[in-house]
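FORM 7B: Structural annotation worksheet

SECTION A. Query
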Amino acid sequence: MIITDFTNMMATVGGSSIISSALTYLFARRKYKTEADSTEIDNLKKSIEVYQTIIDDLKERIQDIKNEVNVMKTEFDIKLKQAKEDCQEIKL
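SECTION B. Predicted structure
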């Protein structure tokens, strides 16, 4: 009887330890996965910020180049007009 009681008590303690360990594992696993996901999201946000900075810089550079092209086009048109006028004067 004492051996049976002792065996039952050990089975109960052992069983509850296994259940407790399993639950702890499951909750810890869930927590670590959530933390890993959170870290991944933070890293993605930082990457997006870096790329957004690059994109904004490139937009500015493109606009500057467009402005330069417009200035050069205007200067070219003026010089072309002067060259045509000079050619007309030479023909006369």
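SECTION C. Observations
DSSP finds one helix and no strands in the chain. Residues 30 and 36 are 10 Å apart (CA to CA).

SECTION D. Sign-off
Analyst initials: ____
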